[in-house]
Design brief:
- By secondary structure, this protein is mostly helical.
- It has one domain.
- It is about 40% helix and about 0% strand.
Length: about 90
């Protein structure tokens, strides 16, 4: 691995290590709040949200931080496979 790649890995590791809470994203909370306010909608007004990140756990945090579901429930299966709007939140 060349020096630039090693420097990038070190920088990313440092950013992750500086996170105050490994289960939440202030960036998603703040930008989501502002975006919803600008659009004049709330999370419950959204019918479909397609979130992506290279790490599987990040969309789970985003679902919670953006207000699509309560904290710490995005990894729970939906009861009885009920995918009706507003019932729960699951990947």
């Amino acid at each position: 691995m060349d020096r630039n790649a090693l420097a990038l890995v070190a920088a990313v590791a440092a950013l992750v290590a500086m996170m105050g809470d490994m289960t939440s994203s202030a960036a998603a909370r703040i930008s989501g709040r502002d975006a919803f306010a600008m659009a004049g909608v709330k999370p419950s007004d959204i019918q479909v949200a397609e979130l992506y990140d290279a790490f599987a756990f990040t969309p789970m945090f985003a679902l919670e931080d953006l207000g699509f579901c309560a904290l710490y429930v995005s990894d729970q299966p939906l009861p009885d496979n009920d995918y009706t709007r507003g019932v729960a939140c699951s990947l």
